[in-house]
Amino acid sequence: MPENRQGKLVVAGGFLLLFSVMGIACNCFALSIVPITGYFGFSRASYALSQTLMFVFSSIFTLLSSKIYRKMDMVAGARIAALAVTLTFFLQSYATKVWMFYISYSIIGFGMAMCTAMPVSLLINEWVDVNASTLIGFAMMGSGLGGAVFNPIMNSLITSSGWQSAYRILAVVMGVMAIPAAFLMLKRNPLAPAGARKSGGEIKKTRSIPLLQKRILFMALILFLSNGASSALNFAINPQLQDLGYSAAFASVCSSVENAVMAAGKITVGRLLDRRGSRTALYMSVCSTLVSMTALAFFRSPLALFLVLINLGLFFGCPIGTVGGVAITGDIVGKENMPAFIGFLSFCMSLGPTFSPMLLGKTYDMFGSYSPLLLTLAAVMALTLPLIAVTYRAPLKKE
């Protein structure tokens, strides 16, 4: 852990924000698919668009983050966002039309990005010089543990009281955790290295290398494809298990285990990034996602091995999307250029999951199963492996 008290608070505050905000609003979304579509009569594809919009607006924030942080301090933004996400999640329980879910999840997506992964990673990077990715992994594991804790709680609340009451209760829980964490535990480091900040505390956008070159654009494509595929895997498991005949209760327990696996994976991937670099971490992410998708599409028994195989991608694949942004950007463009490029590469990383819910919904409506999309994405992951090798060999040109 960081040697100073404030650095420890930043890590802990980031953990609580991801535990509550992402753990509830994002990682419990799969549990709402069946009850809400059944209650209102929405198709899965139309309702899944709400989560697509959540990721779209999350991606929009990451793309605009450099401009936003030149006008607003990231800690102030995180505080406003924590309030907005909590209130919006509560009001979502009163939605009666599908377009209301579209609006609410759009707000949640923008606010979630503004108070979780990116600002927390940048703040930890300000406070920590050694093993920063490992500490980012500790903070990011909050989202997985949050999903592990809140999936069975949400399932129980939906079963006993209905989805509306479940949303209202969990919104209160979210606010109790996220708002104090944002207001009391997050803080900028006044001694951050020159070039990382400007007077006033905003991210300084300096760039000595051009954007349009193979090394950067290939990495953008890799992050888009790999994070989109791992996200599709995560969202498909719960409804796929129910479609295979398992009960909603069993599927929710599996979702809790899956989120715990992702949480543990974030620390492991963080250590991997610190010790072996981003290339090794990306290879592990892509290969494990490929195996898990193939297993989810084809494999059925024995059940224990089936669950191990589908969780492999959650352990190594999904964590890259939240833990790897700073380390990958630094390895690709250099640490001195990282503040200028992290918004773009994080945008590409978060853009992949925007298509996953919509594609899953469309695939299910057409085929009655998620397997065709899972196999297609597994093939895409296989093609991504040589692209990683080419990307790290490509020379980086300076202006």
Please, could you describe this protein's structure?
This protein has a single domain, classed as MFS general substrate transporter like domains (Growth Hormone, Chain: A). The chain is about 80% helix and about 0% strand. It is built from 16 helices and no strands. The protein has helices at about 5-25, 30-40, 45-70, 75-90, 100-115, 115-125, 130-160, 165-185, 215-245, 250-275, 280-300, 305-315, 320-325, 325-335, 340-365, 370-395. The protein is globular, with a radius of gyration of 20 Å. Residues about 195-205 have low confidence and may be disordered.
> How many strand units?
0
CATH architecture: Up-down Bundle
Please tell me what the overall shape is: globular
* The CATH homologous superfamily: MFS general substrate transporter like domains
Averaged pLDDT, please? Answer: 86
Protein traits:
399 residues, mainly alpha, Growth Hormone, Chain: A
Give the topology.
Elements: H1 5-26, H2 29-40, H3 44-71, H4 74-91, H5 98-115, H6 117-127, H7 132-161, H8 163-184, H9 214-243, H10 248-276, H11 278-298, H12 303-316, H13 320-323, H14 325-333, H15 338-367, H16 371-393
Helix pairs in contact: 1-6, 1-7, 1-8, 2-3, 2-9, 3-5, 3-15, 4-5, 4-8, 5-6, 6-7, 7-8, 7-10, 9-10, 9-11, 9-15, 9-16, 10-11, 10-12, 11-12, 11-16, 14-15
